[in-house]
Amino acid sequence: GSGYGANGSINCGDVSVTNDQTVEMWIYATSIGSPSRQNPWNKAYAGEGTITLETGGDFNYFYGTSGGDGAVYQGVNSGSVLPGSTWTHVTFVRDLSSASKTVRWYFNGVRILNGSASYAYAQASPANPLYLGKGYTSPFLGILDEVRMSTAARSSNWVWACWRDQASNTTFTLYGAASPNGGPIIENRAV
Fold first, then answer.
1. Which residue has the higher pLDDT, 8 or 35?
2. 2 has a pLDDT exceeding 60
3. Can you tell me the mean pLDDT for 46-63?
């Protein structure tokens, strides 16, 4: 593939978030299901978390208490399919500090899943760096933009405002055209 880093990925180093977490990004998938499952965002599926684009176009978020890529983890399916070859704002929220301990998926600012978290914390995995564009499955085929991870469980209003602020519209914010020279772009292509 092309892009920044080896095989179109970025190694962000050891970024440990073991409690509340929000991961959001704009995703443009050019190939869903081929060659196989893909990781646009990966730390540790039995630790701080991993986002996997499944072969059917849905997402799974995994996190757990054994650390690394071990055996004790929870998978949270998005329940909705990512549209291919179009930009989609995808957000996952892990809220472990609230009494209800919830996990939530959003597409384009709209909550598509609200579930229960199985564990009260995620085990730190210092041996596993955070990667954008690759992970324990196949590399992500497409483009990632505006990737952000927070150590807070963001509210639905926050997620909607982030999507609306960055979406292609003029009702929330007016901005110029995107420029590929403005920052790192991860783009992998099937060969």
1. 8
2. no
3. 97
Encoded tokens for 101: 């301990």
Residues 146, 98: Cα–Cα separation, whole Å: 27
What's the CA gap between 80 and 11, in Å, rounded? 28
Give every CB contact of residue 93 below 8 A, 6+ residues apart in sequence: 21, 22, 102, 103, 104, 106, 153, 154, 159
CA distance 64 to 23: 16
Report yes or no: 88 and 105 within 8 Å, Cβ to Cβ.
no
* pLDDT value of position 33: 83
d(CA 68, CA 149): 19
> Among 82, 52, 55, which Cα is nearest to 69's?
52
Instruction: Give the DSSP H/E element, type plus range, for residue 138.
Output: strand 138-139
The C-alpha atoms of residue 178 and residue 142 are separated, in whole angstroms, by 16
Q: What is the pTM for the complete model shown?
A: 0.86
Q: In the structure encoding, which two tokens stand for residue 175, read together?
A: 């901005």
